[in-house]
Structures are given as structure tokens and as C-alpha cells.
Amino acid sequence: MTPQFPDRLWGSRTNLLSRAANRFAATKPGSLLIRTLTPLDRAVLERTDARYTVLGPIGAPVILLTTIGRKSGQPRTQPLLYVHDGDTLYVVGSNFGQARHPAWTANLLANPEATVAIAGERIPVTATLVPDTDKEAIFARFVEITGAYAAYRDRTTRDLRIFALRRA
Questions:
Q1: Do the bridges between strand 113-118 and strand 75-81 make them parallel or antiparallel, or are there none, so unpaired?
Q2: Which among 24, 53, 65, 131 could bridge 30 via Cys, Cβ 3.0 to 4.6 Å?
């Protein structure tokens, strides 16, 4: 049996601040603010091995995903919300509803070997694209985390890529 991924969630997704933040995140200005905060969040996550995140007080489950750049061959690290499913983590390439897929998804398609930092651990993983038949159920779990994902999907015509991450 594959060991389960650790889980580190702090804050609450049901408090007033979290509910307001989730509504704001679904707006275009909210998405812009989150994209602007991403470098700060990446720095906090890197310094704490993903124990803490800027979004932690609102109960956002965030990991650091490090892929290998498909063109550069260099490590590329991105903070991402995830759905925890025991021995599998799911991540979605929403890119805040922008027209293009996020670069990390193309990196995983080119090389599925990556590293996840979660709850103070760095864990090698292998990514697989979630089949279309399973995507809707998994995407619904992202919408449970924050309704902003529904807004992101409505903003774009592209098919959002969802990956399953499992220990390598």
C-alpha cells in the first residue's frame, strides 16, 4: 500500500474571512490580487517546506509543485491549491480562467516526474492526467474548496487539465 500524503490545513474555510475571500477570489480583481501574491506565497512556502502559506488563515490547502521546464530543463516551482485524497493529490490547471494553460501543466505533460512540498516534507511524485470520465467529480471537489474554480472555468473555453500526483 502506498503511504498517504501528509495533510496540513490551518485556518478555516467556513469563517467570515474565508467566505469573503472565496467570493472575492472568483472576481477578476480577486484573481489578479492572488496572482500578484503568488511570488510572496511561493517564498513563504519555500522557507517553511509548505508548512505555511499566505492563504493559510482562510483554510486554503496549498502545496509547492516543482516541475522540470520542458524548454529550459530547469526546476520550476508553483504554489497550487490541491485536493487531498489519501495517497493521491489532485491539482487543476485553472490559471485563474485565463485563455492559456499554465506552464506547469505542459511541463508535467512533457515530464511527469515532479516534487511536492507539503506539510514540511518534500516528496517525489509522478503525475498523470485525469481521464475525462473522472474530471467532473474531482473538479467538484475543487469547487467545494473555493467557488472561484467555477468562475475560472466559466471564464475560459479551454478544457482545464487536472493531474493526479502519486508518490514516485
A1: unpaired
A2: 24
